[in-house]
Amino acid sequence: MVEFKICTKCNDKKEISEFQIKKGKYTSSCKSCVYANHKIWLLNNPEKLKRYRNNSKIWHSKNAEENREKKEKIILEKKAKNLCKRCGTSLFDRILIAKYCPTCKKKQKNEVWNKNDYIKNKKTYQDYNKKNRAKINLRDSKKEKTKREQIADRYVSKLLREKNGYTVDQLKENPELLEIKRILIQTKRLCKTSKN
Q: Could you tell me the residue ranges of all domains in the chain?
């Protein structure tokens, strides 16, 4: 239901939306009357208007530097508090609304995409794995075979740790152990192939 109110200036009954709200209450005069009275006041008091405009120009010119410094100080304080939500690095060189640093932003996007993609296609992935189990196993065994044939540092260090009982620190201090073990593996493999 639409509410009405009577304007004290023009004595017309108008909708409540035609009145301004000041200090939580509706004004006694409608917006059109307030606007008309303001226009009349401006026409009747050109000297006061001129004085007001001059005073405001003078005040702004005097305090321009101070206001600029205040604004810059506030912005610097906000930027200093602006940290990446994920890793906690400072985002001082970024815009104020930035929440993540560039690297974390990429990670966040990828994680969200991967999660959504997996949720959408979970059934498809499971069906594919069931149907192509032999194919997947063959692919994985080929990868393992190439790793063994290349005799990578990781593979050699794993053998030294598991079979010979070396620690990671010992292997870092003596990298020649990896080379010796690699040569031993190669010779054993050559012996096996020559026997066959």
A: 4-65, 149-195
